[in-house]
Amino acid sequence: MSAAPIRCRLCGEARLETFLSLGRTPLADALVRPEAAGLPEERFSLDVAFCPDCSLVQLLEEVEPQKLFVDNYLYFSSFSPYVLEHSRRHAEGLIAARGLGPGHLVVELASNDGYLLSNFVEAGVPVLGIDPAPAQAEAAIAAGVPTLAEFFGSGLASRLISEERRADVIIANNVMAHVPNLNDFVEGIALLLADDGVATIENPYVRDLIRHCEFDTIYHEHFCYFSCTAVQKLMRRHGLYLNHVEHFPDLHGGTLRWYVGHHDEPSDEARQYLAEEQATGLALPDFYREFGARVEHVRTELRKLLTDLKSAGKTIAAYGAAAKGSTLVNFADIDGSLVDFVVDRNVHKQGLLMPGVQLPIRDPAALLEDKPDYLLLLAWNFKDEIMTQQQEYLDGGGRVIVPIPEPCVL
Ligand code: DWN
Is there an atom of ligand 1 within 6 Å of 86 CB? Predict the structure, then answer.
């Protein structure tokens, strides 16, 4: 019996157009324990499609969220100082703009280890975190952030409002792209958000991903890749409106923050982004058609650069056991024949192996111990922060390789 046609996650359209295939890859955050080295890992196809009806960019294959975010999820937001500062500014801005205080409620979806809500707790604003990853939820609770270790959707939202809890602010950073049932997730936001409330939603901006060839941001945790056009269509299906947009070009390779509410009050910025997307063709399939060829070019150039350095007797390590790093090293087949090890500040990742290529992950101190000639930045989105942090390694003659948007040596 043929499988049911894969339909658009947003609008149900069946005519999806695949424009990129990154092969069958392991799960980006499924780091490998040393005792499992050499054993086969689960792999899933990583094919990306465009919906001609609502312009949502999305993955075709779906990996169950339990496997992605519960069984073995090691991403803790607090290991990135840039993310902590960005979050502090976001919280302070909302508290000031909306006069938040003890009588309000701020709910964060995918609250991780409490890295953002802790700012509201310090300001005396009641909060509720929701995150299905047990270790992160536990860390948040230990940090004084009340947290439900559950997946969010219309069911949990209905339960919360039955307890007379509506949110004055809902924050959803790097989560709306991570849910297979997009409409149920947004329906939950519409139910939980107070009538005069605001939801702020952050995700990588698909325009920046395509323009800067950030194909490594594509992995199984990211079911969707959003434009303002798609977000507006998605919100309207649930009685919500896209009212404002903020762009953060240096966050995760280019992030948009969408502000949505129950009333149609678009700002000039929101109108401008929507108009620009129509003018630049972001809502049309041609915008994505050449992407595959550009991705292939980056893979070829990066492999050539690394191979030439190895042939010249140089040693190479990598920085950042990032999910995006897993996509890059597995798609470009950057294994132990090219890179000796990866370093990462996240202590939960140290001692494990990168998925697929199974590169060992060590403490960044290894850079001063082993003094590799070159350092491939898998977490290139934090280049400035990492280079500042690793100044001693650089002063000792270490050189940095930035792989995206075009492989280069700094
Ligand atoms: O959407 C997601 C984004 C927000 O974060 C999640 N699904 C998964 C994760 O993706 P990622 O792992 O590609 O994100 P990062 O934040 O780019 O990963 C950076 C990695 O580098 C982390 O493992 C932490 C590490 N790091 C470090 O070792 N030293 C990061 C910084 C800033 C540092 O100074």
Answer: no
Task: Answer yes or no: are the C-beta atoms of 42 and 27 closer than 8 Å.
Answer: yes
Q: What is the Å distance from ligand 1's center to 324 Cα?
A: 8
Among candidate residues 17, 363, 86, the one with its CA nearest the CA of residue 249: 86
Best residue among 75, 221, 400 to mutate for probing ligand 1's pocket (most ligand atoms within 8 Å of CB) is 75
The predicted-structure confidence for 296-349, as pLDDT tens digits, reads as follows 999 999 999 999 999 999 999 999 999 999 999 999 999 999 999 999 999 999
- Cβ atoms within 10 Å, residue 364: 18
> Is the beta carbon of 386 within 6 A of some atom in ligand 1?
yes
Predicted TM-score (pTM) of this structure? 0.94
Structure tokens at 126: 């009641």
Give the neighbor-by-neighbor strand order of the sheet with 106-109. 147-148, 127-130, 106-109, 167-173, 193-204, 255-261, 241-248
Say what the alpha-carbon torsion angle 13, 15, 17, 23 is, to the nearest 10 degrees. 90
Instruction: For residues 252 and 209, give the distance between their C-alpha atoms in angstroms, rounded to a whole number.
Output: 10
Q: What angle do CA 203, 387, 318 make, to 5 degrees?
A: 80
Measure 297 CA to ligand 1 centroid, in angstroms: 25
Q: What is the pLDDT of residues 73-113, one digit of tens each?
A: 889 998 889 999 999 999 999 999 999 999 999 999 999 99
